[in-house]
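Problem statement: downstream parser choked on a complex file, so we are re-checking the raw output for the zinc ion run. The parser issue turned out to be on our end (a line-ending mismatch), but while we're here, posting the original submission so the record is complete.
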Amino acid sequence: MIDELTKEIEGVRRSFLNEIEQIQSPEKLAALKERFLSRKKGIVGQQLLKLRDCTTAEKPVAGQLINQLKLFIETELAGTEEKIGARPSTQEQWSDCSLPASDLPIGRFHLIAEIQRQIEELFLNLGYEIAYGPEVELEEYNFTALNIPEFHPARDEQDTFFLDGFDNTVLRTHTSPMQVRYMLAQRPPLKIISPGKAFRKDDPDATHSPCFHQVEGLLVDRGVNFSHLKGTLEVFCRSFFGPDVNLRFRPGYFPFTEPSAEVDISCFMCSGRQPDCKVCKGSGWLEILGSGMVHPQVLRNCGIDPEIHSGFAFGMGIERVAMIKFGVPDLRLLYENDLRLLGQFG
Ligand SMILES: [Zn+2]
C-alpha cells in the first residue's frame, strides 16, 4: 500500500510541476491552486481519503507522505505567485504606521498586595502610620514581650521556625513584634498598623500555609477603652465589606490582650437570610479578626505605664480577607500565580 501510494504521490508531484511551469497569469494560477488544494475535491484531498484503506501501522507514514506533498505544492504556489506578480514580494510589503497599536496586557497588583494596599489606605485615612518590621525577629519581641512565656505552646517547635546558628531568633509568627518595637521606640499617643509576612510550621492545605500575610493595628493613648476598639473596627469592616455589615464580638483569648475578642461580621452576601449561602454556610456570620485591649503587662514590658495609658490591638489574615471577600475557595490558589485566577481581580 505504501509503495503504491509513494508512486502515486510522485506522479501527482510531476504533473503539478509540469503545469505550474507553464503558468503566466494569476487567474490560471488560482485555478491550479483550486484543482490541487481545494478542500473537498482537490487532488491532495483525494489522496488523504486513501488513508482510510491503510492499516494502523501504515497510517503515520502515509499521512506524512501526503503532508509533504501538500507542503511542496503550497511552497511552489507561493513562489510562482510572487514571480508572476499575483502578490507583492515581501520587500514590497509595507506597514501603515498610523494604525493603532494592538493591545498590550496591563499589569496589576496581586490580590494579596491589592488587599494590603486597600487596608493601608483606609487606616492612613484614619490617621494611622504604617510600620513594617523585620521578618527575622528576636524571640524576645516575638514572644516574651508579648506576654507569651517560655512554656507557652506557641513557642513549640511544631509552630515556629527557629533559625539555626542564630540564638534567640525566629521567623516571626505574627506581625505583633513590630508593635513591641514601635512602643519601645516611641512614646504615646501611638497609632500604627503593621502589615507583612508571618511564618508558622503549618502543613499547606485549603486554609493554612507556612507563609502568610497579616495586618495588625495598635492604638495607645490616655483613656482608650473598648468602645474605641469597637468603633474603629466598625469603620474598617463597613468600609471594606459594605456599609450594612454588623459586627459581633465573642470572648476570646490572646496572651497579649485582656479582655480579648474574636470579631465576626454579618454575612455581606445574605445577611443570614439564606440557609444555603456559600459565603457563610448559612450561619450568617464570618469570623474575620482577633482583637482586644493591650495587656497591661505588654505595656509595662515596653516601658509604658498602664496606669496612665491604655490601648487596643487587632489583627487579621490578609489571605482570609481575600478568601471571604472574593470567594477564593483555597488559599493555595493565591500562591500559584495562575493568571486565569489573578486576572479576575484588581
Ligand atoms: Zn451568607
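For whoever reads this later: The chain is about 35% helix and 20% strand.
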